[in-house]
Structures are given as C-alpha cells and as structure tokens.
Specification:
44% helix, 7-stranded mixed beta sheet, rod-shaped, alpha+beta, disordered N terminus
C-alpha cells in the first residue's frame, strides 16, 4: 500500500514529538489573538469543511485549533457524539504532528506508522487515512490544521491534495481577516480613548479658565470707571497675575500629560499664597454680593507647592463656595498648621451637601441632581492636584447649613 508524505527537506519528521511545538508560547499567543477559541460555529468556516467533504468524499472533515491542553473544533462535519457537540478534545492527536511542517501531512494508512498507531484521538475515531494541512498565520505560527479523515485506508489523489490545500488557504485568509478586524477594532478603541482623554483635559482647563477670566473682566470694568491712580497699579498687577495663570493653563492644554503628574515643588510663603487667592477671587465674590474673609494667623509655615496649580484648587473651592452662598453672606478662608503640613479651609454658609452625595463629589463629571450648573470637573481637578502634592482633600457639610472644605499640603517650620 502506497504511503504519500509531502514535506520539504528542511521540515521536521512527523515522527518527532510535537509537544514542544504545541506548547510554544509565541504560537499560543498568536492562537489566542485570533479570538476563535470557544467561538460558535460560523458558516464562513462550515462552508469550507462541507465543500472539502463533498469534493474528497472523506467522511470526517474539520478545522481544528490546537491549544496547549486541547483541540478546539472550530468547524466539523462527521464527528461522532459527544465530540460533535462539545467541539473539543484533550490528549494527543494526529493534528499535533501537522504543527511540525509547512507541508501537508498525508497518510494513506495510519497503522503503517508505529509512532501513530497508539494516538488516542486516532484510535477513538477509527482513523486509517489522514490528510492534514497546517494553518499558519502571517507570522508563520501554526494555529491548527484543516483535516480530512477516513476510517478506511485510501490513496489520497492529486485532486484531493489540490482541494485540501486550496480550502485550507481560504481558511487561513479568513482567520487573518478576523485578526485584522480585531486589531482594527482595538486600534479604534485606543484612538477613541485618547480622544476622550484629550477632551477631558480641554474641558478641565476650560472649566478652570472661567474664574480668572471673570476676574479679568471685572478688573477691566474697574479700570473703565477711572479708578484713582493709587488703585490702578494694584488692579493692573492683579490682571497681569491672572493672565499668567491663564497662560499656564493653556500650556497644560498643549501638554496634558503634565496634569496632575510631574509637580514641581517650590517653597512658597503661605501669606503670599492666600493674598493671591483673595486678589483672584475677591472681584467674583463682590459681584455676587458675598464677602470673602481671610482669617489671618501669625507665624504660618511656608508650603512646598506648585503655586499656579494650587491656585486652581482655591479657585474651584472658593468659586463653588461663592456660587452656593446666598447674597449678603460670607465665605471664610483659613489656614491651620499641623505636623509637617498645612491644612487650608474654605467655609461657607450656603446650601450644603446632602450626606448621600458627599462620597461622590470628587468624582469626575458627577453632579447632584439638584445642581446642574457645571460639568462636574472642579472638585475632581482639585483632588488630583492636591494628591499630586502628597496631600488630602475632604469636606464636612450639612444640608441647608453650609460646607467646610479642607485640603493639606507639605509645610516647613516657620522661621
């Protein structure tokens, strides 16, 4: 009886142990990236097995993917139950030997080969003749086999060879297409995530530009009303400082990765910082008929901060306090020294925050149902900046009685 084995001189013999090739990590990674393992039957693959059975007359035809511990039958025709339903089998199979070569493994009589006579899968199916074409991806990793089996010895013809090789090539193209589509979908999701992150940064900076922009507008109105000369220099200095803060925010739009990481600490006098906060937010408080009160404490330590970013924290906290305070009320700004840190407070007597909402107020884009005047970014930005400084932020509030926000930053002892 003639046995036909087609292989290139450089390929490994099918008598070699295929387990090393089967367990190759790179091959297994390529296999899992096809997303075909444990997937349901599909007509695009079933049509190929049906055509192969019709043209070769083989009673069993299947497309099998060889995993580390099992064979998964992506498509099959003629397999007995329960294998036809479970679509997977463990143990050594003839298909594992197809992983060793680029050429088809063609056996007219399996029993002629002592190494194959005891293969469990072949014994279970009663395989006497085997034709297996290795399925290799574009990186030359063997993913599995396109197989035709017969329960009787047979001489596989040149036509059988042509049919199996061509249909296996179609299966390989389909697998490559699936993988390309999956990679394209991943790239699209990655691009969408990057675009969303960019939009969040733009929204965050746009949100924080509102307070300094309001200060500029109100300050220019003061200038327009012909302030006395002694006040004019003070207002111009305020405008210049506010414009510089806005410029830094624009820089962060161009380099969003800097927020909130890569904080550059500089030792800053606390009194100077608080004066800047008052200068920035006082015009907004006055326009809302709210008094901004700075509780001064002597001998406050200096703080290790990136000043313009901490001004953003104050801008958000004080801006919210002003927004939710009734006309004629006061917002208090305070600083209390602690062990190697300074705790800042922003206290108002406004509408307060319900206890059920307090755990969520520092989440991005979260808003209470009764407050839809913002976009839910200010407190999230403040939290990110404070934590980037190594500090903490929190709130104590009673609905209808006002809120007390606090945050901490590292400090050094006062001179």
């Amino acid at each position: 009886m003639r046995t036909c084995l087609n292989r290139s001189p450089s390929s490994r013999s099918f008598q070699d142990d295929p387990e090393v090739a089967r367990q190759d990590p790179q091959r297994l990674q390529a296999l899992h990236e096809t997303m075909l393992l444990d997937s349901p039957p599909e007509q695009s693959f079933d049509g190929l097995t049906q055509l192969a059975a019709k043209l070769t007359g083989a009673p069993i035809v299947f497309l099998v993917l060889v995993d580390s511990q099992r064979d998964f039958y992506k498509s099959q025709l003629g397999l007995p139950e329960p294998l036809a339903t479970t679509r997977q089998a463990e143990g050594r199979s003839l298909c594992h030997y197809s992983l060793l070569s680029h050429d088809p493994l063609v056996l007219d009589e399996v029993l002629d080969f002592e190494h194959l006579a005891d293969v469990p899968n072949a014994q279970h199916l009663g395989v006497r003749a085997y034709f297996g074409v290795p399925l290799r991806d574009e990186h030359d990793f063997a993913l599995g086999t396109f197989c035709a089996l017969d329960t009787q010895p047979r001489q596989w013809t040149a036509l059988d060879h042509e049919v199996m090789v061509e249909l296996a090539a179609s299966a390989q193209r389909e697998i490559s297409l699936r993988r390309a589509l999956h990679e394209a979908a991943q790239n699209l999701r990655s691009a969408q995530a990057e675009a969303q992150a960019r939009e969040q940064v733009l929204a965050a900076v746009a949100h924080d530009l509102r307070a300094p922009l309001t200060t500029i507008m109100l300050s220019t109105e003061l200038l327009a009303r012909e302030l006395p000369a002694e006040r004019r220099a003070q207002v111009v200095e305020r405008l210049q400082g506010t414009a510089q803060t806005m410029g830094r925010m624009v820089d962060e739009i161009l380099e969003p990765a800097k927020l909130p990481s890569a904080v550059v600490h500089a030792l800053t006098p606390t009194s100077r910082l608080l004066d800047e906060v008052v200068a920035l937010m006082q015009p907004i408080a006055q326009s809302n008929d709210v008094q901004l009160v700075l509780r001064s404490r002597p001998q406050l330590p200096s703080v290790k901060i990136e000043r313009h970013r901490l001004l953003r924290v104050f801008s958000n906290l004080v801006g919210n306090a002003i927004k939710f305070s009734p006309p004629g009320s006061s917002v208090f700004l305070d600083a209390v020294p602690g062990h190697n840190e300074l705790r800042f407070f922003v206290v108002d007597s406004g509408s307060g925050i319900a206890a059920v909402n307090q755990p969520h107020i520092f989440d991005r884009y979260w808003q209470a149902d009764e407050d839809r005047r913002g976009i839910g970014l200010g407190l999230a930005i403040a939290k990110e900046i404070v934590e980037a400084h190594g500090g903490r932020i929190g709130v104590s509030s009673v609905l209808g009685q006002g809120s007390s926000f606090y945050f901490t930053v590292p400090a050094t002892p006062a001179a």
